């Protein structure tokens, strides 16, 4: 269901929030969008925890804050950089943690540079980075060299220190509009109270610097030793009810279930795939192929690797790209399931136009949402549109059994409460019927291209069972046909002997359906609730919890004991499942030392270096690809977060005017007439868009519920008293808000929630607009995505819907 607007999950969990001593809620309005968060935050506050909220608007979340800062949208990295600088200069970092659990001491390649806004390796033509210099100095064993101290100028720590020395509180004030004293107060409050946790959502992710903003969070938390601890972590508050589950199942184009990299067109076989992605990925991929193709995936046919679609690495096939290709006429059919794209996608002009280029669109939804009736939008002439639209009535969440995975990575099972109304059917039934019919049409074909359909294992029953699907995700021992009891059983088995539809889900149904568990006892009183549902991976509730112990494997926080090394039993034990490579390997062994086992160094990464573990000392002479075990995940836009202005910005970058916006941001320009970019002379104000508690996302459901419409009937533009006075409007007056891409007329809300602020010494205004409306439903209204820009974060592909430039006038 629904497009995903970012990867990630909580390192910790909702119920763990009660353990924090300080919260940085920046880029989330959880009181309105994730009210359950407040239940646990309030428990911590009752025990004396402090809450810091950073938001362009004074929200309901902000109303509960001890420290509130109003920020110019899209500038978080500037104040976060200042916090990093403050923590380093004042030695507020957790030295033990930094030395033992992060890559602070590893030596960086001497060719690495950062100069005037650009990291080394930038290619101006392709606007991409070559990442070779973002690596370590390696020893003869191909392992990174370690510096003797944090002072070594080659060390990651020294690079970090130098990089953020440019970020003073005063510079951050000029960029963000937050007073320097407030930034200092935030830095001090957050750095000095432990453990501290960070909560974020769209306010951080819908930017061209989204990934780097979250990297800045990770750096702060690693420096403070807050990751792997109860009450710590970096917590992504996910959006749609099962968006965590759908990202786990790979609804992004560039991965496969369980966050496996998707194969690319040059991967001719598993060997090539392994050479690019590390040999570590072979087993989960083979297990996935076994789940999909069963006995038709054999060692002899490379486990049906040929059946997988391969992506074109040169094409960043994000949603915007998909609609561009549709606009070019390259799509005949669109299956639009559980998404109201015409309302939700940035710069909706492209969507509106592209849908007319299709032969057919199938919409599966509960209501006839705007997308399903795009041909009826006021101003559109249905007789000129060739697209045939088929509406499939979908059953709602209460009308079907299945699991939803929440932000805490808890896979939670539920039964159907009622039978679907009318002709509605669960999506699974639709997909099952569709697949079976398509397969019938291909029956008897010997064409290689049809093999993936004909050879698939499709055994969900006559009436497809959602439990069978979850069991497929859990995986089987393919030799005995039995469900895999635990993740450890998957890890132990030889490649090709097991199947897993999503390897991180292994264990969820191995000993009965653990996702259905509803035991809410909590013996540790840490909110772990180990017997409530099942958390991936391996029912670990707090990721990287090895880091909650010292080097000897003993908990550093006696009040919040998660795991420990029991030397009598020679075993890692705990209140939580120990997040270690091997429970029998002691804290001082190479395996037992690692707090971040998913990284090739086993360390938390202050600097996102290019590095592959297990490389052979010399490449083989026969020209075979060089295969290491695990390559590091890289950020395409730099190894350290740097502040860049949004694509449309009222000012130039104070740190480096020559490289003002992110040099690698994807600014779509295939259709210059549609994908226009505005300038501050014409559009002097900053627009930010957000959700409201009474409506949900594109409003497909909520705008058809009369009592919600009564509470929140129409969209509006909120602005400061100064701006309202300047353009001569009062609360409730109609205003026209325009951007380079379009304009809408809505009522204005004059508010103290937004205040005039100064950027580089100039007075600046933010205008806020909710985005949940469209022309259909019981309560229609203009769509804010008429105005937004579809430039994308280069790594995640998330559109910059949280900031663009607009003008506003009395309508
Ligand atoms: N009632 C309700 N609940 C929802 C939803 C809904 O529509 N209605 N939507 C669901 C979905 S899919 C999602 S993804 C989540 C979204 O949950 P949130 O991310 O909380 O949603 P938003 O209101 O879009 O944005 C959060 C805040 O970010 C602020 N913000 C904007 N730009 C910036 C910035 O540059 N920096 C900082 N620090 N803050 C900024 C906004 O002013 C806003 O208050 O909520 C989910 N829950
Ligand atoms: N300007 C701006 N744009 C944004 C955002 C923003 O903050 N600002 N936020 C972005 C975010 S985070 C998100 S997640 C997207 C959301 O964008 P969409 O996913 O397009 O929005 P929804 O309204 O959640 O659409 C979900 C649809 O699924 C239907 N539905 C519900 N349950 C089922 C089901 O079981 N089966 C089927 N088939 N359909 C079902 C609902 O009726 C609804 O129409 O919007 C993005 N767009
Ligand atoms: Mo979302």
From TrEMBL:
Ranges of Basic and acidic residues composition bias in the record: 580-591
Key words of the record: 4Fe-4S, Iron, Iron-sulfur, Metal-binding, Oxidoreductase
Subcellular location, principal: other
Name of the top EC class for this enzyme: oxidoreductase
Domain Molybdopterin oxidoreductase as annotated: residue spans: 9-436
Region annotation Disordered: where it falls in the sequence: 576-597
InterPro entries: Asp_de-COase-like_dom_sf, MoPterin_dinucl-bd_dom, Mopterin_OxRdtase
GO cellular component, one term: cell envelope
GO BP of this protein: anaerobic respiration
Cofactors demanded by this protein: [4Fe-4S] cluster
Cell compartments where the protein resides: Cell envelope
MF annotations from Gene Ontology: 4 iron, 4 sulfur cluster binding; electron transfer activity; molybdenum ion binding; molybdopterin cofactor binding; oxidoreductase activity
EC number assigned by the record: 1.-.-.-
Domain Molybdopterin dinucleotide-binding residues, every copy: 687-804
Family: Belongs to the prokaryotic molybdopterin-containing oxidoreductase family.
Matching PANTHER family: FORMATE DEHYDROGENASE-O MAJOR SUBUNIT, TUNGSTEN-CONTAINING FORMYLMETHANOFURAN DEHYDROGENASE 2 SUBUNIT B
Protein name, UniProt field: Formate dehydrogenase, nitrate-inducible, major subunit
